[in-house]
Amino acid sequence: MNKMTQFKELISYEEALERIRKSIKPIRRTEIVPIEKALNRVLTEDIVANMSVPPFDRAAMDGYAVKAQETFGASPFEPKTLKLTEILHAGASSNRVLGKGECVQIATGSPIPKGADAVVMVEFTERNGNDVNILKPVYPGANISPKGEDVGKDQVVLRAGEQFFPARIGVLAALGRKEVKVYEKPRIMVVPTGTEIQEVGSPLQEGQIYDVNSYTLSLVLSENGAIPIRCKAVPDTDHEIGKAVKKSPDYDMIVFSGGSSVGERDLLRNVIQEFGTIVFHGIQIKPGKPTLLALVTGKPVFGMPGYPTSCLLNAYLLLVPAIRQMARLPRKIEKTVKVPLAQRVASASGRTQFLTVKIKDNQACPVFKHSGAITSMTEADGYIVLPINIDVIEKNQEVTVFLFD
Amino acid sequence: MNKMTQFKELISYEEALERIRKSIKPIRRTEIVPIEKALNRVLTEDIVANMSVPPFDRAAMDGYAVKAQETFGASPFEPKTLKLTEILHAGASSNRVLGKGECVQIATGSPIPKGADAVVMVEFTERNGNDVNILKPVYPGANISPKGEDVGKDQVVLRAGEQFFPARIGVLAALGRKEVKVYEKPRIMVVPTGTEIQEVGSPLQEGQIYDVNSYTLSLVLSENGAIPIRCKAVPDTDHEIGKAVKKSPDYDMIVFSGGSSVGERDLLRNVIQEFGTIVFHGIQIKPGKPTLLALVTGKPVFGMPGYPTSCLLNAYLLLVPAIRQMARLPRKIEKTVKVPLAQRVASASGRTQFLTVKIKDNQACPVFKHSGAITSMTEADGYIVLPINIDVIEKNQEVTVFLFD
């Protein structure tokens, strides 16, 4: 404990985000995945259509394929009569060329027979055996979806860097592609530290508590496009923490949690300084002041607070932007609601404060107990922000709640 | 085509949602999963704490465990001096009982030794060898997190029906639970219909197009808590569709797509009527008028439009609420933005119209081509709604965009 020191420099939340932005390199490794596994993944290259969609002129309506010219002048009183030569169900096509005075019954989606240039909707026809009376003229091209109407061959349909959502995977299917090249997900090692931390499922010894942070951190990583590799807790010693830090070449990022006290935090800081450089250590936020970011062999190493609520809230505030930048995902669109505050709250002066709240009776009710309490998070629907220069928010004042889900 | 009929009755979008709400039974099967796999799953029963968290009185600060009474009157000028008898690092505990005039060095998180009732922060002490000078008095309980402060034994910490997000899984970890009982995900069969539909990856024959809908529908199902079982396209015949419908006892829901035309749609309707009852067929919306819901052996059967854009947009509008109700997930929180419309748009009269838009230069730009165009969706960031009684939205008028992501 005699190694105990104060934070060298506390930076603002905005400055921490800016340093994260500058320090994190987007992933460059790629892999090929089946399209049904590509949801939320990020495209590495432009996709150029290798075919037209639709791949042929097709009927946009059920009806009769005709030569438009032969319908001109038709009316219910003076119908034009055409000979029905063939019936094309959906998916059926014909090699026959439509002759003069002929028509072909056609289903939506079927290819337009050669020689035809329009479709008369079934509603504007009458059929008597093989005679079809056309009751209304059509112009050339009427009720036809021309080849390439949706996607032209050689057209760029998707662009490098775009994230896959269902419609974008749909366009790959439309082009017949089974697989697509995407960026790999960052592989991130999650290391809880603390001699007192016991693995979930093992019996607790006197003085031990269960590992919470490696679970919550891993889930936040999974939700934001990374692959967490969760480790058992390592004891708070130079040697053990050093062993973990030295694994940085094997991962895209390491996230430590624990060591909420100044002494333990300095342990991580001191070990890291042997191998790399500190980007920041200490932020003017509450909870989460001791959060640390370093670069070791060019890889980001986060030191998150040990208290479960501080750890998870700081993961949302600081780790999520870092992971998403690495995974090349767009900035998360925050879900927010504006509601009145159920009770007056006072802020920690000189720090941006994040306060967990529950939404009840359309009011934001603070549920924060203390940073050690996991229930501060489980009961919360989201959090509100008390800016650094605001001391108090009064009861009934409208606040913006950032929702966790 | 001679079986062609009109829709018996068109209902409003709101009425369709209401009939869905009344028709879908939430899933009742349960399963046990490891907690790290429980994200977004739904809890079947209340979770009662089987232990206290923290499980013992622990130090909330680095410092010295003391008998509070022995610090009374201490000041920097007249410190109280205590004998250091032991050093407890984090995770270490002691069997020794603190005696009169003694103190124990203690790290945040360590159990408070018997006989001590407060912690003096290290900042308010001076150490000379084994003498510790206390510079400030503390009250009994100071800087101690008492046993059960976060969670009391036998307290209900999570409730049946709650969905797991990271913090709620964190509380299970804090209680040492490795597994949890959740509702099963609904198993939903996805059946594209159409003789012209070819499986992605196989070469296209004349008149064929690739299956898009089974991919987009499966992804939307996955995103909303269901397990899609994707089938190869079945031809548009009574027999083939009947075979698929008859599998309803094996699944929680069947979703057909295809048959955008009235004739084909009636095929599905006619087959289903043999085995079950129609809940609705035909909605006053654009796109998506022909969407169908039926109950077969008590299981919901959806008939989605065949055109990719209509199919996917209708999946967001109608299928998602149905799946989430079945999976017991809360109503999706819509992400929306309000921006001016980039160009005047006119609505289809008598129908609620959903128009896909891209957000560009902080304006909503319509990207809808036609309901057959998958690119109407890939380029879209979301959609706007033109209510049934609105004919036109003018350029620059503010609109609410419902974002896809």
Describe this structure in words.
- The structure is a homodimer of 405-residue chains.
- Chain A has helices at residues 13-23, 166-174, 213-223, 238-245, 262-275, 308-327, 375-378; strands spanning 30-34, 47-48, 58-59, 63-66, 80-88, 102-106, 118-121, 125-128, 131-134, 144-145, 156-158, 179-183, 187-192, 197-198, 209-210, 227-230, 253-257, 276-281, 285-286, 292-296, 299-304, 336-340, 345-346, 352-360, 363-366, 382-386, 392-393, 398-403.
- Chain A folds into 4 domains: 13-28 and 184-327, MoaB/Mog-like domain (Molybdenum Cofactor Biosythetic Enzyme, Chain A), CATH 3.40.980; 30-53 and 149-183, Molybdopterin biosynthesis moea protein, domain 2 (Alpha-Beta Complex); 58-145, Beta Complex (Molybdopterin biosynthesis moeA protein, domain 3), CATH 2.170.190.11; 336-403, MoeA, C-terminal, domain IV (Beta-clip), CATH 2.40.340.
- The first copy, chain A, is α+β, with helices and mostly antiparallel strands and 405 residues long.
- Chain A contains 7 helices and 28 strands.
- In chain A, helix 1 (13-23) packs parallel to helix 6 (308-327), helix 3 (213-223) runs parallel beside helix 6 (308-327) and helix 4 packs across helix 5.
- In chain A, 19% of the residues lie in helices and 30% in strands.
- In chain A, the strands form 8 sheets. The first copy, chain A, has a 6-stranded mixed sheet with strand order 7-4-6-5-9-8, with no helix packed on it. A 6-stranded mixed sheet of chain A has the order 16-13-17-21-20-18, with helices on both faces.
- At the A-B interface, helix 2, strand 14, strand 15, helix 3 and helix 5 of A face helix 2, strand 14, strand 15, helix 3 and helix 5 of B.
